[in-house]
Amino acid sequence: MTAQARFKEESPASEAGEDSGGSNITAGRGNEAAPFESAANLTKAGDLVLLVSAGGKRNVLRLEPGRQFHSHLGTTRHDDLLNLPYGTTVQSHLGHALLLLEPSLDDRMTRIKRNTQIIYPKDAAMIVQRLSLRAGSRVIEAGTGSGALAIALAWAVAPTGRVYSYEIREEHLSVARRNLTQMGLLQYVELYHASILDGFAQTSVDALVLDVRTPWLFVDKAHTALRPGSFFAALVPTTNQVTQLLAELEKGGFADIGVEEILVRKYKPVPDRLRPDDSMVGHTGFLISARPVVDPSEPRRWLSQERKRYEARKALEERIADEEVRRAQDLAEGQHPKPKLP
Predict the structure, then answer these.
(1) Largest Cα–Cα distance in the chain?
(2) C-alpha 223, offset from chain centre
(3) 288-320 burial code (b ≥16 CB/10 A, e <16)
(4) Would you call 209 helix, strand, or coil by DSSP?
(5) I need a surface site. Which of 4, 11, 217, 226 has the fewest CB within 10 A?
(6) What is the model's pLDDT at position 17?
(7) Three-class SS of residue 190?
(8) 177, 163 in Cβ contact below 8 A?
(9) What is the DSSP annotation of 330-341?
């Protein structure tokens, strides 16, 4: 299933050439749907909804009276999707069944218009966790791209938090603004058309994530923008990028540094034949997380134990190498490397 945008062309019924009698849609709610039909559980104009076909195809659309949704399964009128409880089965004018659901965060992220490679939901979920985001958090993102990660960040910090998203390419920012608007999350995001080489306009934020090609160039800018002890993360696809970023984080006043690769394998949900899917989204990137700290006297004391053991081993190897050079020089000068026995 591709993560391509599923927003279809929609048009008022008068423009679509449909019969004024409508699409003959019926709601397959059954007798048990009544307890769920409170006002809070019913769809209404302006809601973002998900339509799932019997074949598993997923389409996200915003309900607008008088408009229609067109697919290979037929026409579905928005009016016939209003005032229904989520979980209702409806039918297109061709008689094909469609399941009406509330779109998940995964649906919102992967079914958007894109002009860049978007961050996968599995990576976004771990980024949100590593940044320790919650309602009210203030988080900086660079760069915006098509806005998929901004959607996940805004979802996590709403309704009282704020996302500050930086993007140097105006065409990307335009697409991201449209996608955030479609998902109803733009009110929680401030978009900046600016280079982060000049730093960030915000200070003392709770979290910061870099989704740029050379994140190590902006470690000092990130440290300035973050409050001490807050949360930093970056996503890069290759190991050499990880290496350069780790070196800069160690020099730049960061501690509690971690590196992870996130892999998720789906299974076919067949009780009598449970097995993994034939294909999976494998490596998408390495997630590097860290915490900005203040320790003027000894900043390297907070390096990981693995890093300290490595440094100790390297220091020992250097001492051994120096001793071997000294002994070779002694032998060349005719001196015994050890004193003669009496």
Answers:
(1) 117
(2) 21
(3) bbbbbbeeeeebeebbeeeeeeeeeeeeeeeee
(4) strand
(5) 4
(6) 35
(7) strand
(8) no
(9) HHHTT--SSPPP
- Among positive and negative, which fits the CA dihedral 106, 110, 112, 114? positive
The residue ranges of DSSP E strands in the chain, in sequence order, are 10-12, 48-53, 58-62, 67-71, 74-77, 88-91, 97-101, 138-142, 162-167, 189-193, 205-210, 226-236, 254-261, 267-268, 275-276, 286-292
- Residue 100 CB burial class (10 angstroms; 0-12, 13-18, ≥19): buried
Place of tokens 């996503």: 235
pTM of structure: 0.77
CA-closest candidate to residue 100, choices 161, 153, 36, 164: 36
Cβ(92)–Cβ(73) below 8 Å: yes
Picking from 47, 177, 179, 58, the residue whose alpha carbon sits closest to that of residue 107 is 58
Cβ atoms of 58 and 111 within 8 Å: the answer is: yes
Q: Are 233 and 209 in contact (CB under 8 A)?
A: yes
Is the four-CA dihedral 90, 94, 96, 102 of positive or negative sign?
negative
- The vertex-131 CA angle with 128 and 133, nearest 5°, equals 65
The CA dihedral of 192, 194, 200, 202, to the nearest 10 degrees, is -20
For residue 331, count CB atoms less than 10 angstroms from its CB and return exposed for 0-12, middle for 13-18, buried for 19 or more: exposed
Q: Mean pLDDT in runs of 10 for the chain (342 residues)?
A: 38 36 41 52 93 93 95 94 96 94 93 84 96 98 96 97 97 95 95 96 98 97 97 97 96 94 92 92 93 82 81 87 84 68 61
Residue 20 CB neighbours (<10 A): 6
Q: Record the tokens describing residue 103, joined without a space.
A: 């779109």
